[in-house]
Amino acid sequence: MATKRTKTILKLFDEQFTTELSCSLVYMTPWQLLFATILSAQCTDERVNIVTKNLFQKYSTVEAFARADLEEMEQNIKSTGFYHNKAKNLIASAKMIIEKYNGNIPMTLEELTAMPGVGRKTANVIRGNIYHIPSIVVDTHVKRISYKLGFTKEKDPVKIEFDLMKSIPREHWILYNIQIITFGREICTARSPKCEACFLNELCKAREKK
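The chain above was modelled as a monomer; its predicted structure follows.
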């Protein structure tokens, strides 16, 4: 159940930022979003978009990813970091998509998280953006800012996800993640937050503690 304070914060987010459901990762198909999200772990979306622009031309189908040479794939995605594991997971996930799901991306959280390199964050990105299932995506911005706003006291992403599911209205789940990312990049930055210019000054729990 959303409190009056929570509703006010969400209303301010709607006024300040987009209310359109969009994704900062560039993709044309569901499997491209899945692979781009796997690559985005510990990497910026901007860097991933640079890499996938060429990657998705070189490997234009799931079958092409499944047949890819591991060492060659590693070199293709090296700049995204953790490329040994990511390359292995991309190829293994492509094989699973073909062999188990007939080339389609599964919909359920259980099926998605059973895929190599896919955790709850990646699964919820797919569920929200591809299948439009209300989902909370706990990335670094959501984790940090939700704590500062007092929506959670947890540090574990899964526990944060469940706290946010309780406090934020279901119809705002996907939008909350999109807005928080923009807020975290433009105003509430990790290193030097622009507190004086923040439209949530009067509502921020972290601000109250200063």
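The chain has a mean pLDDT of 93.
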